[in-house]
Each structure stands twice: as C-alpha cells, then as structure tokens.
C-alpha cells in the first residue's frame, strides 16, 4: 500500500496488538518517520518525525505497559549523529499528540550514519553500531535506573505494588554507598515500604487468626468469629492475599455441622433411662432429628450408638408387652424397625437396619462376638480394625458399636493392670497392654543401674514392656503413658524419683508423686523402671578414666520442686 509523502522503506515492521509500526523515508536529506498503521486496514493512524530515514527493525518494549500504560519503540536513523531515538506511546493511541519522541543517545564523538537495528539484553542494555564501525552498549546509569524504578511507585500504596517496591529496593541495594546518596527520591521508597508493611500486617493478622482456629469443635465459635471479622475488615485487594481463606470457609461449614450435631447429641443424651415404653417419645424425637441431618452432620454425632441402643431396648420393651398381652411364647411377638435406605439389611436386637455392605460386615462381626464377656483379645482387635477402617460417616452407622466398646473396655481392664506387681496404666488408650516382671537385686540390670546411680537406694524395680495390641509391637509413644504402682508403705507426698533405664543405654530420672497410696509417673518408653530415693544433688559416678569397664557418660541435673530430672548417657550391657 502506498503512503503519501513517503519515498522509500527498507524498515522491518513490528506488529503489536492492532498496530503496525514501520520506518519510512522521504529522501535521504529529509527527516524520517515512524508510522503507526491499523493492522487490519493498513490505514495510517499517525506518524512521528525522527532525525533521519529509519532503515532498521524497530525494537519494541512492553515491559512497563501493565504498570504505566505505555509501550516504547527504539529506532536508529540513517543520518548524523547516528544515535538512538525512543517513541513513548500507548498501544491504542490514534494521534501523534499521544506520542513523545525522546533522544536517548546522541553518539557524541562517534557521529556517523546508521542503518543497523538495535538488540537488547535481559538488563535493558541496547546494542548497535553505526558507520564509524564501533559497537555501542547503551544503558541507563545505575543511579538513574533506581530513581526511575522508585518513580514507578504510584500513590496511594496498594498491596499489588509489592513487586514494584521490591524491585526498586533490590536495585537500590546493588548501588555503592556513594551512588545511594545520589538517589534523590529514596525517601519515597522508604515511605512506600512502610505503607506496604502496614498492609501486610493486616493480611498477616487475618492469616494468623484463621490458623488459630485449629480443629473445629463445639467450642470453636469465638475463634472462627474472630477470624471472620479480621478477614472482613480487609480491603478486597488484601483479602485476595489471605492464602488460607479456604480454611476459614471450611471451619465455618464444620462449625455449622457441629452445632446441628450438638442439638441431636443433646436429644440423645436426654433419653430417659432405663429404657421403658415411656422413653418412646424422646427416642422418636432424637431419631427424627438425626435423620434430618446431612451426611457430614451425622458423622459428628458422637453418641449415635446410644440412640441405636435405646431403640433396640425399646423394641425389646414393646415385645415383652405384646407377649404379656397375647400370652404368646417368648420370641414370637418381636418387631423389626427399618432404618436407613442402603442395600444390605442387618438385624440387631430385633431392629432392622438398612446399611452399606461395608458397615453390615462390621455390624455382623460385632454381633457374632460372645455376649458373656468371653470374647478374646484377638477377636476384639479384629473387630476394632474392621471398624477403624471405615470412614467417619460409615462409623456413625455402626449401631452396635457400644457392644464393641464394652469389649474393648474389658480388654483394657485386663491388659492394663498386673495383679502380681500392682502395676497399672491410668486412663490409657484401650489398645495399650502392660507386660511386666519384678527385678530383684540379684539381677544384672538391678546391679548395673545401682552402680550408675552411685549406690543410691533402689526401693523397687520392674521390667515394663508397653505393647500396642493393634500392631503386636512395642507401643509407639506419641505421648506418655501414666503408670502407677503401690507405694508399699511410702507416705503420700514423699519425695521419690523413677529411674528409667532404656534399651539405648540412656538413664532418665523422672518426676514422680506419691498420692492415695500409689507412686505415679509418666512413662515414655518400654524399659526398666526403678523407684529410687529422691536425688537432690549428687556427685557424678566414677568416670571411664577411673574404671575402664565403663564407657564415658554425661550427667545433667536440674532441681525441680518435687524431684530432679536427670539424664545419664551410658552403654547398656546385654542382660541375659
């Protein structure tokens, strides 16, 4: 397409968005032009004059368009002095009034014609040559570059300027101390950082409040409301930076479920006991309320098994009444009640439940357990593992869980108290089992521990293994297990310590208390445990230099109100 007033063009055009930018000449003695064309029609939108005929490929930069709205075109020209000019414009500009031509390099001392194109590196340095045969590297002085970066920080300060502010700060820190002193707008950077910091503190406050919610339960309402208020106070741009907002939404949803579930738990807890025909109304109301819950809400009802147990007891009470009224034989007048809408039917104590196959297998497994408390540990563990493999929602459907729970409690009572030694686990998890033997003063372990305690009087010593019956291995201590043994004449509030002699060779003196005729302490390993006289401040036992049969060890002591906690590291001999 021919353009009026132009005589030649060997420039390579650059295309961006809906515009074409190309250099035109009007004869070698006349100024050149950078012309902007409509990309669809090639109609001229506007043009700007440059010092000579631009025969180069125009270099386009869009690096600052998002922040400033401007694009930058860099061009050489085939006339003296052979420098670089820049056109500052907007991508949607339609007239020359919206464009500005700026000389950025005049090639002083190297004036000559130029037809070369410009290339740039990642730092923005421009490279080209003119007819002097020299290659030029043209860049902004470091100090000026920092000033320009700071000037790009617009007010008011918003959180989305964080990258711009950070870029300016990093550039400033690369300057020498002398050059830093020449950054005339440094105070603007400092003020921007202060304002940005205040915005970030608001975001951090909301994030912290949300993290503080933790696991949601019925007492979580104040923490959730605090987090919601902190979030709502933020500007929308700041709210977008709250990285854990989804956690708040989930917590609010969980709390709503918890509140709904708590109402049903209250109804279940209010069922009259013992169960009689008079209990029917409260049982029916609790069942109706439970069935009205969502799946998520049902999973949070912690006492659902008590409702199903009450329903079974009510059916039995109704059966007895019918048998009495009809004088029928026992077992012939029973009723069934259908609950749920799944595909497998199970009957528990005369009540029919429709549940999933997985849940039915667990219910039937519990039903098959002996009712006379004779179920073995192996059987109870097997039934519990099957139950524990269910989802939370499925567990809520195990209507006879109370029967399993009773068996678990019976196993715990049997496993957590040793009649021979009096050792007992207090309020321990049901799957913990104690295996223990007394250790007398003729035992090698007794003598070895006494030696390392420098002959301190050992009142009693036990070899205690703490087993997890679910795995069959030693218990993996996520927390301590509270143990007790009879005080055997030691008065309450007496000062004693427990020496824990571990397989690793570590001896740890634990705090212990004597109350209600028992010595109580927190165990943290399967090990030898010995009751020793209270140790207030003892000299260290003999070192390896004094006795070559003993490896070096370290003793660390600190006095506590009730007892000393000390740790001695030593090699434990094999005890056969």
Structural notes for this entry:
- The chain has 576 residues and is an alpha+beta fold.
- Among the domains are: 14-139, Lipocalin (Beta Barrel); 420-569, no CATH class.
- It has 16 helices and 24 strands.
- The chain has helices at residues 65-68, 142-151, 162-173, 177-180, 186-211, 221-232, 236-239, 245-269, 280-291, 295-299, 304-326, 357-367, 377-388, 392-395, 401-415, 444-452, and strands at 14-16, 19-24, 32-38, 44-50, 59-61, 71-75, 84-89, 100-105, 119-120, 126-129, 135-138, 344-348, 351-355, 424-425, 432-438, 458-468, 473-474, 481-486, 496-501, 506-515, 518-523, 527-533, 555-556, 567-569.
- The strands form five sheets. Strands 14, 15, 16, 17, 18, 19, 20, 21, 22, 23 and 24 form an eleven-stranded antiparallel β-sheet that branches. Strands 1-2-3-4 form a four-stranded antiparallel β-sheet, with no helix packed on it.
- A hairpin with an 8-residue loop joins strand 6 and strand 7.
- Helix 6 (221-232) packs antiparallel against helix 8.
- The chain is elongated.
- The termini are far apart.
- Mean pLDDT is 84; it is low at 327-334 and 536-576.
List keywords for this structure.
576 residues, alpha+beta, Lipocalin, four-stranded antiparallel sheet, 24 strands, 33% helix, 22% strand, disordered C terminus
Radius of gyration: 42 Å
Secondary structural class: alpha+beta
The strand count comes to 24
Distance between the termini: 103 Å
Regions with little confidence, pLDDT below 50 for 5+ residues:
327-334, 536-576
**Average pLDDT taken over every residue:** 84
Q: Output the number of helix runs.
A: 16
Strand-residue proportion: 15-25%
Largest sheet: 11 strands, antiparallel
Q: Could you estimate the helical fraction of the residues in percent?
A: 25-40%
Oligomerization: single chain
